[in-house]
Amino acid sequence: MTTWLSEVFDVPKPVIGMCHLPALPGDPGYDAAGGMDKVLAHARQEVAALQDGGIDGILISNEFSLPYLTTTEPITAVAMARVIGEIRSELRVPFGVNVLWDGVASIDLAVSTGASFVREVFTGVYASDFGLWNTDVGKAARHRARMGATGVRLLYNIVPEAAAYLAERSLAQLTRSTVFNGTPDGLCVSGLTAGAATDTSTLAVVKENAGAVPVFVNTGVRPDTVAESLEYADAAIVGTSLKRDGVFENEVDRARVAELMAVVRGLRA
């Protein structure tokens, strides 16, 4: 168990549930008729279902801002800050934020809302569904320092969804160099898309080469896979499998959260 994970979550192998926000102002799918009141009502319902189901932490993201930008418009983080500000008193577990796919905006949102961690793609250059995807981890790290936010933990997507790393290096080499050059607080290992299974052999390679940096299984965790995933990973981030019928577009189902967390508590015991 790594120190910061213990400090933030106070349980071994914490499980973080996703609060997927609907499309926000400026997004193609935004429901202007329902407006921000509809977004707020959705967020409140998701948070309640996750917490009542026994989740260890929550990660709030603009998951339905499809198609994503790699440098977001200001309105996205502003809208997310309003949502979190209005539901902040209802959050009983540690929470993080993710402004897809913009690391600096995610850090700003974390600072403004008191989030404990951020998940983003901070390193590498990729050919992706969103075009050529470049990053600047040095800029992001310095931005965090300027904001006085060194306590905001940065989780790096080491195998991003919907993208392929352009350099011809093995996953083991990539992990070691990311840890050395990027100084991440955590590494997230994903499948191809949200909800897609994360290969345990990939998890094993990242864990073997990550040193003391905690590894998060980032997609595809279900009651029948969580034991195998947490054999290698130090924590899990779960979204799709917690939703009604396990469908990405549906709302969080409290019963599915409780089912997963019952398995996790059994593993801890």
From TrEMBL:
<dbReference type="Pfam" id="PF03437">
    <property type="entry name" value="BtpA"/>
</dbReference>
<protein>
    <submittedName>
        <fullName>BtpA/SgcQ family protein</fullName>
    </submittedName>
</protein>
<comment type="similarity">
    <text>Belongs to the BtpA family.</text>
</comment>
<dbReference type="InterPro" id="IPR011060">
    <property type="entry name" value="RibuloseP-bd_barrel"/>
</dbReference>
<dbReference type="InterPro" id="IPR005137">
    <property type="entry name" value="BtpA"/>
</dbReference>
